[in-house]
Amino acid sequence: EPSPVTDSMWCSIRRCFVISVGVGFLWLFITLKVPREIEDYQNVMTIQGQVHDLPLSMSQEDSSSRGEDLRPLEDWQNLTPKYMKKIQQRRVTWLMVGLSSVPRPDQSSLLYTLLSLFRASSKAEQKRLMVLVHLADSDLTWLRETIVHISSLFGPQILAGQLLLIHAPSDIYPTVEDVKDEAYQGEFYAKQNIDHAFLVSFATKLSDYFLLLEDNAFCAPNFVTHIPWKVNTMRSNPWVLLEFSNMGFLGKLFHSSDLPVLAHFLLLFYKEKPLDRLIPHFRTLLAQKNPILCRPFLFYHRISYFTSNDSQKATIVQKKNPYGPDNPPGAIFTDMKVFDVHFPWEAYTLDESFFWTHNVSAGNHLTVILNHPANLSRVQVLTGTIVDGKYALEKGQVELGYNPEGMPQYCTSFALLGRLLEGQMDQEIFLRSMRYDVSCVRLVVKANQVGGLMIRHIHLWEENAKVAEAAQS
């Protein structure tokens, strides 16, 4: 028997269009009444690690008028559909990217994801792209602040109809008592599944294909071009689901014609399993037995981190594996080409981010300059994709630097640690004269290389840190 949530779900789709109208009017309200909070929306460093410091439209001085300010959100149902007319009449796009977002401790996650989506695609590619964001929480303060941030950064995309924000009515969700299931943490999974059922329902008939993302992701450059190419190569092979990532439900591509069925499926089984475990069942039911993994993967998770005000420095704040790398704080410098998608310092994080460049020349380098000299016991450098090793550095070497001088600092002497083999090097440092007081770790290109280059990780292990961990255990 179908879930009781189904009927209310489909009745609410119409209301969601009206709610989207409210988002549009609220955006206009914000741009007219609130001073522009971020002067240059193209400057990613404005929000990098500092989103929690952004001036919000609702400060302490005007907290007494919260109720009045939030009325546009509460009265969405009474707004006229002028804003939606333009959207409803626009042509169907080739690709709809959909994601559902809820409040997170790191409030920059959604903004980073949107930045990565638009910066990874050219203006021509964006004409084939629409991004749909479901703000899936009923906290009015969070909704308003999120819309303020998004409208400040992505005004042109909103006006062009390339970015849509929706919010589902709270009455489509079952009560907490209906979804309690300790074995599967049913309350969390049920809401997540219903969030995404509403998302894919709204996306029906707005595009030819629908790409499901998460709100803590980043994208490979030109993914909008790569995905159609892959779809064309699959013309002779019927498919239900193409997977451009092997992580959770990130990077899953559907035919938009299958979205109504997917929404029904999620609503029927919303209490049973989390979304990433329901999607494979959906694929199987529609007669695609085996997963189709499309490599190289185009989408990766981004782990929360915070950076200092110095755009060159990245300080990682996250739990470390006791056996994993330490990556002491430092600054990252390079003379390779830098694009507005994957930055040099991303090669030095402890998550799955990476630095992307292309057409490197002999002598180019990526250098980590540590804030304080460190005693290193091991250095690991990984380039290229995980599965097939594409975009690896063909000829390169790793050097350790000493005796820093100047401001900003640079190392005055270097010693060769080792050369990359098939784009990788993982080497322990045995010589005491090399491992102590290391101030720089430098990856050097030894031959010209045409095409893309992915520097995935530079991992450092500190000797003293491991000794301390062993003593504590």
TrEMBL record:
A Gene Ontology molecular function term of the record: acetylglucosaminyltransferase activity
TM regions (residue ranges): 12-32
Transmembrane keyword on record: yes
Residues in MGAT4 conserved region domain copies: 76-289
Pfam families: MGAT4_cons
Example GO BP: protein N-linked glycosylation
UniProt keywords, alphabetically: Membrane, Transmembrane, Transmembrane helix
PANTHER family: ALPHA-1,3-MANNOSYL-GLYCOPROTEIN 4-BETA-N-ACETYLGLUCOSAMINYLTRANSFERASE-LIKE PROTEIN MGAT4E (PTHR12062:SF11), N-ACETYLGLUCOSAMINYLTRANSFERASE VI (PTHR12062)
Name of protein: MGAT4 conserved region domain-containing protein
Gene source species: Diceros bicornis minor
Source organism phylogeny: Eukaryota, Metazoa, Chordata, Craniata, Vertebrata
